[in-house]
Fold this sequence. Notes:
Layout: E1 5-6, E2 17-22, E3 28-35, E4 38-39, E5 41-46, E6 52-59, E7 62-70, E8 76-82
Antiparallel strand pairs: 1-2, 2-3, 3-4, 3-5, 5-6, 6-7, 7-8
Amino acid sequence: MNSKHITPRNEKGEPHGSWKVYWYNGQLMFKGNFVAGKQHGYLERYYTNGQLCYKGNYVDGERHGSWEYYWSNGKLMYKIYYI
Length: 83
């Protein structure tokens, strides 16, 4: 498998900072932010064909606010609001 990962970590080895992970075919799989090992901030996840799968925000490792989920053809599947 020939994939590329940009996955910075802090001094404890926890995920920290902006992450990008790519599928084996070179398409972006995931981009998001971590703080001390927990997802925090805006995140996007993609299908292998490059279409957006879902997007939303994390606060201290938990989904928060408005999230959108998409079919692999790019059409909106549904929206949900997390508290």
